[in-house]
Amino acid sequence: MADELTRLAEYHGVATHYDDWRGRAVTVAPDTLVAVLAALGVDASSPAGVRDALERERAREDALPPTLVVRRGDGSATGPVLAELRRYLGQGEDAEVEIEICGGEPSGPGFEPLAQRVDVPSGWHRLRVRRLRDRHPVHVQLLVAPAALGPPPRAWGFTAQLYSVRSRASWGLGDLRDLADLAAWSGRTLGAGFVLVNPLHATEPVPPVGPSPYSPASRRFPSPLYLRVEDMPEYAALPADDRERFAATAAELRAGTGPLDRDAVWAAKLAAFETMYRARRDAPDTAFEEFRRREGPALARFATWCAISEEQGTSDWRRWPSALRRAGDHAVVDDPSRHARARFHEWLQWRLDGQLAAAQRAALDAGMAVGIVHDLAVGVPHGSADTWADESLYAPGISVGAPPDEFNQRGQDWGQRPWRPDALARGGYAPFRELAAAALRHAGGIRLDHAMQVSRLWWVPEGASPADGTYVRYDRDALLGCLTWEAERFGAVVVGEDLGTVEQGLRDELTKRGVFGTSLLWFERDGSGRPKPAERWREASLATVGTHDMPPISGFVHGDHIDLRDRLGLLTRPRADEEEDHRRTLSGWLDVLHEEGLLDAAPDEVMQALADGSTAYDERIVTALHDFLTRTPARLVGISLADAVGERRTQNQPGTTDEYPNWRVPLADADGTPVLLEDLEARALNLFSRAPK
């Protein structure tokens, strides 16, 4: 059965072996293959089941794909579309191929012969293919995508965890007005070209509100937590006593100390939202109705999920009564009692759309070349709004994660349910297209967290160790086609976070398609393990020093991450070994900075000062490292706002939940004193000794 199981797995894009982070070949256990195939709707639990499944696959070998993606070249796209179709037709087989133009130009009289068209415009269309052996024509969705995105102008910008960037006007968490003000200040005063923020995806509408922006309730819609209450048009119309009451509540939230409290902020903002909504509920608004039409059924389902979550006291639909667990069931659709509450949540999304647009306008008005760059998380939890809206898109009994690597030697289980690649293809990749379009509508770019999601994901069967998972392949060409088409439509840049275990060829493919990678200074090494020279860095990348899963520069150089992991019991080898590796990494970079003339102090002198706990060289190291980034060819350079103010604490410590206040660390300086948005001009360190070009 082993050989047949292997063939069946390969039919479905399930890896039967892979190379680990050390380059060693690993064979995937049969139990893992059986479990992953089951999640794809394939019974491989017995030899007979495997044989039957193989027969079904062989019978479908010459079937036309549900979705066809063709990259536009220099000339007409008609020829490439026909050539791509011939790959699926039998040898010498003729077929009548017609096309219905659905995007790029007005719809004509319906289907017309494809071969007679001079060109096929970019965008989505429908093909109708008639083969002699088929009783009925086959319909195929067609995307003509750009060959590659054009490069953005060379620029630098801040990277920020928006919730942590508070002001004297926000309600205890950074919000969209703070984002607009950060973009306006950094663009106009410092010449920044962009601001990259964490995912602003929707959170739970009932407490507890999850702190991680990378584990959202929905990736399709943003979180009302980021609304600036006073900027909503309805606020000015409230009676004075209401406004005074809310101002007092906001002041209390601003006065809070310690970790950020999303539950308290949400409770306060929700009370304000409800008061404003009651005051305007009966007022007709054509703009609101147009927004509802634009967003369509996806908005209605999300808003209904919010309403039921409030009604049931939990946002995990798996804990709801069985009659409410499917978005299309009668108990959900036919109950008018929650329609009014769902409309309230639609209104919140409308107001979010307006404030997101205002943030991007502020960035562009300040002279930014790119503007706001939004982050796109890799997935959603099992009981989320997105899985409830259409559970058939998601693989049951599977979580996304990562195999063991140098930094997480036990592997990772992110508790997120993956899309089924076959379901995506059948639906013309509509969920992914809508997701990308929503993120790009009011942005100059998006960052794709875990860029490998466009090519393969690590699937972990329920109850198994993360080390006992395997890779499942997605149609890279189709997903990249969707992504680049949406980015081209909006004139946006796309950055892929291609760190960690990256399959061979993916980085080259991203570059070829105009999708930028991510170059992380601490990880950029040559073949001998030394820091990679500046001239050898990638041009098509966003270059940064660190990431949100690491401490800021000042914390890193002092080894704070080793102290923290040791204290939490997360070290997988002796602390002395960790410290020796850290000293080697740090010493190597100090040598480079000194040799490049970016750091005047002798590396040995700096190392000794750090060993003694001295902070005398911290600011100079921060400046030197950022100066180094400007010497690389990277077209985009990202500067963490935490580094700019001397923060030492990490935002997230992988491998922990409540042991560390992940995603709840307010922006502060090296002494832990909070830094507000209004303080940045006076408190930010000297980021560069010379302006980046």
Rg to the nearest angstrom? 26 Å
Helical content class: 25-40%
Oligomeric assembly: single chain
Strand tally, please? 22
Morphology: globular
Distance between the termini: 60 Å
Low-confidence stretches: none
Which band does the percent of strand residues land in?
A: 15-25%
What is the SS-derived class?
Answer: alpha/beta
User: Tally the helices: what do you get?
Assistant: 23
Major sheet, described briefly?
8 strands, parallel
Mean residue pLDDT: 93
Provide the spatial order of strands within the biggest beta sheet: 19-16-12-9-8-22-21-20
Descriptive overview:
- This protein is an alpha/beta fold and 693 residues long.
- Among the domains are: 1-59, no CATH class; 74-146, no CATH class.
- Helix content is 38%, strand content 15%.
- The chain is built from 23 helices and 22 strands.
- The strands form five sheets. Strands 19-16-12-9-8-22-21-20 form an eight-stranded parallel β-sheet. Strands 3-7-6-4-5 form a five-stranded mixed β-sheet. Strands 13-15-14-17-18 form a five-stranded antiparallel β-sheet.
- Strand 1 (17-19) and strand 2 form a beta hairpin.
- The longest helix has 27 residues, at 286-312.
- The N and C termini lie far apart (60 Å).
- The model has no long low-confidence stretch (mean pLDDT 93).
Summarize this structure as a short list of keywords or feature phrases.
23 helices; alpha/beta; globular; five-stranded mixed β-sheet; single chain; 693 residues
Q: How would you summarize this macromolecular structure in one to three sentences?
A:
38% of the residues lie in helices and 15% in strands. The protein is of the alpha/beta class and 693 residues long. Among the domains are: 1-59, no CATH class; 74-146, no CATH class.
